[in-house]
Amino acid sequence: MNAGLYSAVSGSIAAQTRLDVIANNLAYSTTSGFKGERFVQVAERVSATETNPVAVPTPITRGGLYTDFAQGKILPTGSPLDVAISGDGFFVVLGESGERLTRRGGLAIDGEGFLVSQEGLRVQGESGDLELPPGDLSIAANGSVSVNGVEVDTLRIGTVPNPARLGRDSGTLFNPGNQQITDVDPALVQITQGAIEGSNVSPVKALAEMIETVRGFEAYMRAAERLDEMTARAVTDVGRV
Questions:
Q1: N or C: which end of the chain has fewer CB within 10 A?
Q2: For 194, which DSSP code?
Q3: How many CA atoms lie within 13 A of 205 on its CB side?
Q4: What pLDDT, in 10s, does the model give residues 178-190?
Q5: pLDDT at position 18, please?
Q6: Which domain covers residue 11, as residue numbers?
């Protein structure tokens, strides 16, 4: 394949993937606790291989996805069931597939009296599923949960050795994969009741990135078309000689 055409096509594919990522970030930009994905394009060169020892090194564009775990803004709501984390760590929730991690702190109480996430997964305390008796709920900055002034349990705030390796089950729900969830040092986090953590995606910035990416995709495609025309013209000219 023509080296320039190879580069243009690979660049357009990478731009299309980046566009999909930005569109997904925009869709979740108003979802509490959402952590945006980032797509990084990297120019590489492919050297000659054993099957093609005379191949000319060709610049191509590849890309990699990673999750941006930067802190989102803490947004007051006044609801006693809304809880936000400042600092590292995640709420630990339990479902049929095992323990999961989330920063989405808009919680609820299910029909059996257990504290659950918006996905219906049971929020974990230090003693397991966090069951709440009827009464006034209070959650302290250290995660201590009390009802009518009596301490019930403490919210479990967990993390993994390498958050970059977390798998995303849904927009705000992460699975640890083969990593062990460990408890975060309480001194490193602060819990705020009556507030949620907003998404760390800026809609304005994401729209600007989308426009930039669309223009880049169009430029790659125009380059590919022109290179293809040049190749066709060269073949035609050679045929006339």
A1: C
A2: T
A3: 7
A4: 999 999 988 889 9
A5: 87
A6: 3-70+200-240
Rounded to the nearest 5°, which phi and psi values hold at 211? -60, -45
Mark whether 82 and 189 lie in a shared domain: yes
Whether 192 and 207 map to the same domain: the answer is no
This prediction has a pTM of: 0.81
The total of structural domains in the chain comes to 2
Residues 223 and 165 in one domain: no
> Looking at the structure, do residues 143 and 55 belong to the same domain, yes or no?
no
Encoded tokens for 206: 């994401």
pLDDT of residue 47: 56
